[in-house]
UniProtKB/TrEMBL annotation:
Domain of life: Eukaryota
Repeat region (WD), residues: 23-64, 111-146, 244-285, 285-316
UniProt-recorded name of the protein: Heterokaryon incompatibility domain-containing protein
Organism expressing this protein natively: Suillus luteus UH-Slu-Lm8-n1
PROSITE patterns in alphabetical order: WD_REPEATS_1, WD_REPEATS_2, WD_REPEATS_REGION
Domain Heterokaryon incompatibility: 776-864
CDD domains: WD40 (cd00200)
InterPro entries: HET, TPR-like_helical_dom_sf, TPR_rpt, WD40/YVTN_repeat-like_dom_sf, WD40_PAC1, WD40_repeat_CS, WD40_repeat_dom_sf, WD40_rpt
Signal peptide: none
Keywords carried by this UniProt record: Repeat, WD repeat
Amino acid sequence: MPEEADQPMIPILTTKPVHTFEDNENADIVLGLAVFPDRQHMVTGSADRMLRLWNLKDHTVTRKMEGHRGRVRAVAVAELNGKQLIASADNREVVVQDRDTGEFLTSGSVIKAHSEYIRSLDFSPDGTMLATGSMDNTTKLWNTETWQQQGNQINCNSAVYSVRYSPSGELLAIATKSDIQIWNPETRDRIASFKDRMHKFYLGSSLPLAWMPDGTRLLSGGCKSDPTIREWDIFTGQQVGDPWKGHSHDINAIAVNSNGTLVASASTDHRVHLWQLWDRKTIAIFRHSSSVRCVAFSVDGNRIFSGGDDNKISEWVVPEHALCDVKMLTINTMARNACIIGDLSKAAELLTREIDAVANNHSSYANRSFVMARKHNWDHALHDASKSVDIQPSFTGYIAKGIALCWKKQVWNAIRAFDLASMFTNGDLKINHFLLLIKAVALFNADQHEEAFMGIQELAKACPHADTRACLIVEAYLRVQLGIRALDGARFNEAADYFAAAVNASSSSSKLAIHSKYEDFVVLFGWNLKSLWQTANQNRCHALLQACRLREALEAHQYMMDHSDESTKASWLDWSTTFKQQCSALYAADGDIAFSAKDYDKAIILYSAAMDLDAASGPIFVKRSKANLEKELWEDALLDAQKVIELDPSSYVGYELKHVALHGAQHYDAAIDALQTMLSNLNTASTPETRKLRQLYLDRSEAKGAIRKVIDAQLENAPFRMLNTATGFICDRDAQINTFSTSPEYKELLLLTMKNAEPQTEPIKKGVEKYFRCVMLSHRWEGNEKLLHEIQGRDVYKLDPVGTVVKLQKFCHVVRDAGYHWAWMDTCCIDKNSNAELQESLNSMFIWYRHSALTIVYLSDVPPSSTFGALAKSEWNKRGWTVQEFLAPKVILFYQRDWTLYLDDHSSNHKKSALIMQELGDATGIDPRALVDFHPDTRSAREKLKWASTRTTTRQEDIAYSLFGIFGVRLILDYGEKKQHALGRLLQEIVAQSGDISALDWVGKSSEFNSCLPADIASYEVPPCELPPLSEDAIQTSISSLRDTAAAASASELYTLLSEQTAPRFAQRRLHLPCMVFRVTEVLRRGHAQDERSYFTYDIKADGLRDLSIKSGEKLGQFSLARPFQKTVLLVRPWDRRLLELPDETQGVEDEFVPQPASQDLADGFLGENGTVDRDYQSRALRLIVRLEQQFNALLLIQQYDGGYKRIASDGDIIAQVRDTSSIQNMTVRRLEIL
């Protein structure tokens, strides 16, 4: 009966196979065979150098494949990329063929793999690698894509008999004549090696290996001297249990069925043994007529194929009892199936019917007790179990009672029931093993967890020959239950540990069909054993994730996927996708935290991890792109931005990131295009909020317009033409702008401008200024200077470096090396054939130098290493044009003849060098402060004219033209007008603009332009006459003496009269000069002067003035009161606003000084606005009288026929003085027209 112990099993001996595979043509010994996974084909290798492909259904040869030059000792099959591969080996060579076409898959027909004959070969489980082992003591791995050796060979130190990949492909077992070695094929690390006494005297021709399906155990076969199979624990290197005995000669091959329950071995003793794995016993023997060389199971495990010296392959049927164990529990099929599928009500109903039909059926009561326990009806379960035992004590009755008592937490009574159950096993190991496992589960259900696990572990240790896989399955299931409880209690770390233990315990069952005898656990406890491994793994992943052990959770997930076949993976796809999405979300959240903390490296890693786990969406690419941008990883950021665009082409975000990445990578055109596309997408965005963002930007054309305005403003103060220091070509203004518009600087600026709705003028201005910074050259023309037409369209760097070209080239080199784009040199950057351009250039030159970034002064006559003083002696310091060229610039550097810096001063601006400025000041007579910070205007004209009085120019008119910028005036240039007219026009403009008459203070010859002006600028070389000033004490003394006098009474009238005078006007060569006039009454010549200049000396008398004498080159008519003169002759004191001691104000011709109101009735004061006496005004009027009493520099004028006056030039200053205070009262104030 089923409940009784199994009787000792006698192996079934079979001598007649169900089928044979024979080739009647040239058949020979079969040395190797392999079955294809499609269950339809098998391939064999024979001693006749032939491969044969067999059809398993009709047992015929479908193809014979040649190519070997020796006996085909080994064959292996694999599927790769849709192709069915056959690898076979002979003496030293490997042949690889396509099963379906027969074509060779290697570049040659064979791979010359080894130097000695090959014993074994094996494909990796995924078909990507082929391992070959040879008698040359090596094992080699071959890449099945390229059929090239992968990495270095494995040196095994002894002849190799067998190579076998583990089921996972992670390990490679190699059997040598000396030992068994376990290698990691990826790293070439040897994991373990072990040997037994069989290796000490091994004399066989093969040493077969076979892996157990769980990859933890290895089987090896021995030779005639030790014809046993040994089982090895690869992690400890220890033999498991006793050797499997049964063969009497060499064991040539070993095969394990896919369920890991049966082992077949082929031997020279003409037999194939079929072993039951769980107890290592032979259950069937299949006998050949001669030695058996190879063996394999069919894919479904129901058949065995073996071949050998009988030149054929035999097909054997696996005995039915080997395929299905006897059930430990006897329960009718319908009730069993109901329990298995969980329909407990139906199961209870069926069993109740049995009880009703046969009242004393103890088995039915026991079986219903199992069902009631599963329904948590413990009392009913215990009642039925007790009833069963009362009717007839039995194995199932006491098991049912023990289970029910455990559920009711009556542990000791339950243990007693299980002990009584053992009395009915008749000592059968299998049944006892099953009972102890049931007891452990029941104790677990009674919350005796430690006791339960201890029982399972002791059982496995005490009975190594028993079904250890059952122990592992039970332990795994119970640990899963603990893990689920911990998970429900939010004890995630604890749960993770339980699930990890369950995974480790159940790993051997992950890919195996659940053996039928384990079905009893399903019936008793409702276990879902088929998904045990899946449940353990999935819950382990979930627990680790909840425990925030993200990396471990992903490792657990990867382990789960790596150890699952394709169909299993497909069934888990939804769960796996959801899990990875959860992990991805956590990684992304951690990435956000890292980004906020500015740990961008970490953020990138976390975002990348999130993306690897999930089909990344746009937001995660956006985040990683931003992190890459922060790290300036432009290309990586661009790839992410492009992905954002691909996912949502209408979104502006992707283009925003793209333009920033391209900008950073300096791909400016593409960056601008991306930004423009972003703006287009903002215009068409679906939400008003997004469309509103468009207002923050300018489009390309608007930004270009804003920049162009700044460019135009910048170039208003720049030369029309400049030298491009990068290319060496002259560029006009359009070319300059075009060059800028194609430059990285422009594109950078354009991007910056587009990103601001209100153009940021200052950044644009800075960018434009920086690019268009121009370096001006100040030098002395020498020899044949290159003009514009000579270098137009030519690269100055490529000109023949002779003469002045060297200066031009050196200048450009220095400017370029200093980092400037543009240089200007007056010789070649002005079109002197264009009068309009020449006019504008010379009028603008001061402004150009003033706005230059740097002015280089080239001293061609100052040798290298010159000392202080060389600058002052340079010819450059004597030229007219150079005055404005050193006054205008803010930054200046002096270079010597060899283009080294003067005095070896490497500062950035020689205007900040006190030493150089002092030398220049001494040489020019210009105060160093004015040299450093000069401002052009028409004031202090006499001093500025003195600066240029000793300088020379090639063209005589240039002495005046070169001063236009210094005075800030713009006039027409008229070469040919002669220097008197040129100078006259300049001085006329100075007086007209400023009213400053200091330019009238000169000694020499009168100008043809106007008699009040000198004929030559050299007239200003002599400093003006400095009359001794009156001290303040003397002034106050004089004022005191004037009070209460008639002069005091008239002082106000005179002050008012002078204060009402307007500034001089100078136009059309006529000077309208306000003056204090003294009529000359007598002119007498003393005689002809004897000096070389032929001056005459005249004694002159005038009303109100003391007598004086002058020298003049002009002849004056003599007259006196007795001898009157037809023309009026005057000595005049030009009106000077400073006499009024009012603030110095520059007034134009139309400007008038508005005096303060004065009263002529108050001798001691003047009425102010509120009617009080303005004593300050009174004081100034009296001070005026005192000053008018002092000497002054007078002009001698003679009236012309048209009423105007002409100035009579003298060879010295005409110093005049009023006779007394009354003379002041009697003098007249007039505005005279001087011709």
